[in-house]
Amino acid sequence: MTDTPRPEPMGSRSVFVSIVGRPNVGKSSLLNAILQEKVAIVSDKPQTTRTKITGVLTQNETQMVFIDTPGLHKGKTKLSAHMVKAVGQAIGDVDVSVLVTEPSGPIREAEEQLLADIGASGAPAILCVNKIDTVDNKEQLLARAAQFTQKADFAAVFFISATQRDGVDDLIAALKDYAVESPHFFPDDALTDQPERVIVSEIVREKILRNMFEEIPHGTAVVVEKFKERPGQDLVDIDCTVYCERQSHKGMIIGKQGSMLKKILSQSRQDIEQFLGCRVNLQCWVKVKEDWRNKEGLIKNFGLVEE
Ligand SMILES: Nc1nc2c(ncn2[C@@H]2O[C@H](COP(=O)(O)OP(=O)(O)OP(=O)(O)O)[C@@H](O)[C@H]2O)c(=O)[nH]1
Ligand SMILES: [Mg+2]
After folding, report:
1. H helices within the chain, ranges in order?
2. What is the whole-number distance in angstroms between the Cα of residue 173 and the centre of ligand 1?
3. Tens digit of pLDDT for each residue in 195-229?
4. Alpha-carbon dihedral sign for residues 257, 260, 261, 267
5. Are 149 and 185 in contact (CB under 8 A)?
6. 164/31 same-domain check
7. Ligand 2 centroid – CA 2 distance (Å)
8. Domain termination residue (choose one: 149, 181, 213)
9. Whose CA is nearest to atom 12 of ligand 1?
10. Which residue minimizes the CA distance to atom 21 of ligand 1?
């Protein structure tokens, strides 16, 4: 980024869009599909996303700013309370919200809450029924949409598959209609407001989520301690620490003779190299910080709360 003001294109427009929904419906997958780049991590475990993640897409004069939010659910820890607050703010502050849901299942309490928030905000909302690649029956999709449109006023309904990028361009086109005349808030080639360090730590957390089961993944936080380019070489040295809640979890993350950690690091390194476009020397330590999800200070320390 430079400090010199960029000349605004004629008729410059922008639109802020929040992507909301209950955990695991594919919000982050949708953000990545919109940007055609991976800025948000994705896993088959609910509550993968922990903080608001901003993605930026600039097409000619229009800049679209997307806010991917943590899946709304009622949790017991202080971390989940922070996450619920972040989602509430994301609906009120934008030009249009996208509520993502799956093609089947009951409307959950969290979805009822989101429908109520959408109604209360008065801002326009679009319904996206995602994962249509998993459904053959079109009637089912229509019935699903009806369940939601009965409960809140949606400006439009889209049937999409984020992983196959089906219907995503039509959604982008519809969202563009909500753009208002305004300067662009990010450089036109920006993809996200997340610093590289944060994306790197998120990639490591994604590999932990994908390789481990049950309680362990949700009790981990990853912090990048060092991120240093080697001058004259196409290489970055990265040191990170994985914090977990129990000594026994530490053992499982490291694995037999370090085998699990090795796997997590090798998968992480591949993705980080692709993201940064250079070679990476990735080192990692595993430490125990008991019950960190209930400690305000530690949550702030790990960068999980916006100041
Ligand atoms: N079949 C299919 N699976 C999908 C689709 N979109 C997302 N998924 C899968 O659904 C799971 C959850 O995806 P995420 O993008 O992490 O969901 P999320 O809503 O961001 O989840 P949280 O961050 O936990 O709230 C992953 O296993 C994805 O691969 C889709 O269009 N089709
Ligand atoms: Mg997510």
Report:
1. 27-35, 78-92, 109-121, 138-149, 168-176, 196-211, 215-218, 247-254, 259-276, 296-301
2. 22
3. 888 899 999 999 998 998 766 667 888 999 999 99
4. positive
5. no
6. yes
7. 30
8. 181
9. 24
10. 24
Residue range 247-273, pLDDT digits in tens: 988 999 999 999 999 999 999 999 999
Domain ends where: 150, 181, 212?
181
Out of 42, 133, 135, 160, mutate this one to test ligand 1's pocket (max ligand atoms within 8 Å of CB): namely 42
pLDDT tens digits along 94-121: 899 999 999 998 888 889 988 988 888 8
Provide the token pair at 47. 């509550």
Residues with CB under 6 A from ligand 1: 21, 23-29, 42-44, 46-49, 70-71, 130-131, 133-134, 161-163
* Nearest atom of ligand 1 to the alpha carbon of 41: 16
What's the domain range around 40?
13-181
What is the reported pLDDT for 307? 45
